[in-house]
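Hey, resending since the last one bounced:
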Amino acid sequence: MYAVIKTGGRQYKVKLDDVIKVNRLKAEEGDVVAFEDVILFSDGSKTQLGSPKVSGITVAGRVVEQARGPKVIAFKKRRRKNSRRKRGHKQDLSVVRITEILTGGKKPDFTAVKPAKKPKKPAGKPLTSHGEDQMAKKKKAAKKSTKAKKTTKKKATKKKTKKK
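The structure tokens again:
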């Protein structure tokens, strides 16, 4: 049993337990989503072709994660003009696992229990690059040493000399 669904301007051939990457859906991880634009449905013995879509068939899936696609670089160069343009792009994607293909006008169960969310990373210092953390440590050490020098100077100037 398989179906061809349409979402995000693209068509996908799906079966049970398939994992597909589609354009970003407005759903959180663990949510159940329904694809009602089914273009073709086949249960092995007979095939239904929709015009434009098959009625009474719904494909349900669960959002596994919200991810980003690979980086695509668009580079344009005009020779002998000293003109170059480099642009990068990452597409926002939703990874969906197909859970069921419903026939007879049935609707998916949207109240299904969501899986437990992954624990967030501990709230510590953000990761830095190019030795910024080492530079920050050096600045702190320099501030401490200048404070120590200032306090010794103040003590030396506060001494009073006795008058005769």
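DSSP finds one helix and ten strands in the chain.

Sorry for the duplicate.
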